[in-house]
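We treat protein structure as text, and this decision shapes the records that our systems exchange. Because each token names a local backbone shape, the row as a whole describes the fold. For reference, a complete record is included directly beneath this paragraph.
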Amino acid sequence: MIQKQALSIRCDDNFELSGMLYTSDEVKAAVMIAPATGIKKEFYASFATHLAKNGFATLTFDNRGIGGSKGDSLNGVNASLINWGKLDLSAALNTLKEQLPNTNYHLVGHSAGGQLVGLMDNAHDLSSMFNFGSSSGSLHYAKYPFKLMSAFFLNFYIPTSNLLFGHTKSQWVGMGEPLPKLVGKQWSQWCNGKGYVKVALDREDLNHHYDSLELNSIWVHASDDDIANLDTVKDMIRVYSKIESKIHTLNPQELGFKDIGHMKFFSKRRKVLWDLATDWFNQH
């Protein structure tokens, strides 16, 4: 039997995030799911349930400005990609440790969730990282025609939407929830460079752990993912200069699927793929 517990996750700046903890009678270890940009925690519910059934208590949560963590005003919330990593991901792991002390802790990173781990103050408390679709998303390594569509979104749609509405209307183009202004702005800046967050690390004096993390990690991506192609995955891994990394490429046709792309790994129709995660955690 899976138990679900709604949690309030308090960050260091006292902002409260909405979380959900999935547990079963057997707990071998604990997992936090760090979400993709603009994706709500409910998207990962089936996957989190699967992990809990296999003995991995799992925490899902909404980053500030998203879903149940919107705060009083989307345009007024103190949200950025940097704050998602430094404040939100750190607080989520602290809450997981409070709820389940004296065990091992792992992270599932979906897209941005795996990109921002080096910003976490407590990143060294993680035993391993399982990423799907996490890459730099760099335009430099994008393939045509996706490169043109991505350039339009990053360099015209985001700044225009921010100017007109005070936030990014990403939901209008099928890119998740509306995004706080600074999230959209940093997303645009970072994907125009190389190494994603490295763009900010090169410009700003930020405390981070990208150069000291040595945890084991696996970077799973699909061959039909235009955002996380092999080159952008490698580009992101280079930012984690000491990390132990393995790349695993999924070919949807070889696996009997029409597509997997950037999102469908977490679909119940692709649940046969979820043993990749449980096998990884069992080994680490």
